[in-house]
Write a structure and sequence with these properties.
Number of domains of chain A: 2
Helix content of chain A: 25-40%
CATH class of the largest domain in chain A: Alpha Beta
Number of helices of chain A: 12
Shape of chain A: globular
Low-confidence stretches of chain A: none
Oligomer: homodimer
Mean pLDDT of chain A: 97
CATH architecture of the largest domain in chain A: 3-Layer(aba) Sandwich
Number of strands of chain A: 17
Chain lengths: 407, 407
């Protein structure tokens, strides 16, 4: 079996953490100077591993194996959320690189190979999964033209020009080349840690249905308008959210989550009855039937609220992704690899967060694997995983790929 | 009886509406160029009426009658809310001026007199009732030092310097001089209009108890955090506001109002469970017992929410005024005046909004009178009152003052 080199895995991860180091984490937004440097360094590591490495016109990196036999694609992303953790996407990139190196170094496996992909902007500083969508051919030039950094306001085109990559073509996947795609990631939650487990095998990446709830009432003086004549948009919104809170637990799935992330009242003054109110409301589940059921319920709660005639409520579904179901043969390979290296310490679970793998799953059999995150922390500079878990995860990841390639 | 001059009342109101004219209303923030000009003009009108007029060190104007006999104080404010109505406080200033002129012109009443007061910043561009509080001796230099314009950030001291009034003393009331204080205002609601009435006689100005509700939970990923482990600050706030909505109608008074004017979730992102939430919540009633009862209930709802242990809820009472009860003999004078000029078309009612009169009531017997506002609109440039109602109100206001002065 291709054996990974634990020190090389940890050393590469620690080197990556120096690009944009922030406390014990990193601040490495997409196409920032530190992100560009991290990409250049990683491309160099791919080249050292005899993986012909190219950075393309959207900042994606593809390192290609010269092995003659079957190949898988593996990888993740290098940029971070602002002031976030050192592992997140970097872990999946280093695991992919290590799998490629270990498989190439073992005479028993060197006829097969791993291509390593680093997708740009999974974290959405400029848009939504721009890198992986570009790679599978689901990103039009027009959307890229309009991509702006949410913080700096710089266009992605301009940022790519600064990096020196703007004149390059955007690489497209050759699906015929691969048996499948593997991505590793820290778990963004504490399921593994709280159960004392080491490996999470992702069955599906949940769909996210994002809504905007709007309420139109009548702005009025908070002192002189009797309760009976008010058309308080804020209060109607609170009542609707209360109705969701009462009803959804009765009809949701076992792992459904729903979240009101933002509420805004207009004008938002202490002595003015809000004339308008708005909320961002989100549903996540891996079962389309559950999502449909909750969507219908949401619409009927809204209808009921509108029927009383006090305010006019609106519901806009801003986006509705489909769940990305992982490939059963690849999952079985991960099961076997995990059982061999960590008997009884693995579990199948959905991913509540989005990943590049959900886009790759549209063109390749795809699987994802999680390692434990201490305290379940993610997207924060305190995010961490023990060295032992990092090393174990790299070996299980490599074993599963070998399993698939040598099958 | 002292008869007002309808054309003079309407002409003065229309002239005032030219200072900061905005559509059919005015934009005349406290100590803006247009507000300073309006004050200078009004002081000039007081002087023309033989009322020795002075603008003091906080922008208050006092016009003093030279009549030898009893006197009342009457007035209101000249500045407006942003892009607001032409009548609001200007109405009360012109009614006071007209009462002074009509009483001085009538041989039967010229031995008594009306002092006219214009209080600065009732609308709170710089603080809370700074002018009327200064006049009754309830404003310390330190608070004035700290008064900043909410929009421009300019200090009130600096704005007074621009006006040329910063070196003047602040005038203080001589309570011995007056039988009472009268203020007129448009009704900021549609009680009069909807009942076909012409005059509202204010029994009390409600107290406002202002609260800040805070919830501390735990910020987390909206995809990877199961519903059962969430400590969602926004959801706990929605539940508390729902509990208030369910309980308060059972225990409030007949005219109590309560309002959540602002809700903020932190960080306010669609995919992040809010770690903190905050709301501005306000109670108004003219009965201290009702306010106490609702305050106790609010605290006990909060205790109950804290007892479930999901989040930590806090309740801060930012301010708590006392209801200002109007003076019965002055109210009776208004009743008689209204009944004589508009038989059966007047009503006693509380004021749900705050006015300078609530501060004057601490030192003088005080009364307030409302005229109808078309559609109940206030604090908006479409605010309006028919000419006939404006004229009728001026006469009733003057008659009531004569009644009190000649009693």
């Amino acid at each position: 079996m291709a054996e990974i080199q634990p020190e090389r895995v940890l050393s590469d991860l620690r080197t990556l953490a120096t690009f944009g180091a922030y406390k014990s984490g990193v601040h490495r937004p997409t196409l920032s100077a530190q992100d560009i440097a991290a990409r250049e360094w990683f491309a160099g590591r791919l080249a050292e591993a005899d993986l012909g490495a190219a950075i393309d016109g959207i900042g994606n990196i593809l390192g290609k194996s010269a092995a003659p036999g079957r190949k898988v694609l593996a990888g993740s992303h290098l940029e971070s959320q602002n002031y976030a953790g050192w592992l997140d996407g970097a872990l999946g990139c280093v695991y992919a690189l290590e799998a490629a190196r270990a498989i190439a170094a073992d005479p028993a496996t060197r006829q097969v190979g791993v291509d390593v992909a680093v997708f740009c902007d999974e974290e959405g500083h400029f848009g939504s999964f721009l890198g992986s969508r570009s790679f599978i051919g689901s990103l039009e030039e027009r959307e890229l033209d309009g991509a702006l950094n949410r913080v700096t306001g710089m266009t992605m085109r301009e940022a790519l020009k600064v990096a020196g990559w703007s004149d390059r073509a955007r690489l497209r996947i050759d699906p015929e080349r691969y048996t499948g795609f593997f991505e590793a990631h820290i778990e963004q939650g504490d399921t593994l840690e709280s159960l004392g487990l080491k490996i999470g095998i992702v069955t599906a990446i949940v769909a996210i249905w994002q809504y905007r709830l709007t309420v139109e009432g009548e702005q009025n003086h908070a002192g002189t308008t009797a309760m009976s004549r008010r058309r308080d948009a804020g209060l109607e919104l609170v009542r609707l959210l209360g109705a969701i809170d009462a009803r959804f637990p009765e009809i949701c799935g076992p792992r459904t989550v729903w979240t009101t992330g933002r509420i805004e009242l207009d004008p938002g003054e202490k002595s003015i009855i809000p004339g308008k109110a708005e909320a961002l409301f989100q549903l996540r589940d891996s079962d389309p039937a559950v999502l449909d059921r909750l969507d219908r319920e949401l619409n009927s709660l809204l209808e009921r609220a509108n029927a009383n005639g006090v305010c006019r409520l609106g519901l806009e579904r801003i986006s509705a992704s489909t769940p990305a179901v992982m490939d059963e043969p690849l999952l079985a390979a991960l099961d076997r690899a995990a059982e061999a290296r960590a008997p009884g310490k693995h579990i199948r679970m959905p991913s509540g967060a989005g990943h590049d793998a959900q886009w790759l799953a549209r063109t390749l059999p795809t699987a994802m694997m999680f390692v434990p995150s201490i305290g379940g922390v993610s997207h924060h500079w305190t995010e961490n995983t023990s060295d032992a878990d990092l090393v174990l995860g790299a070996q299980v990841f490599t074993d599963a790929i070998v399993d698939v390639l040598m099958a």
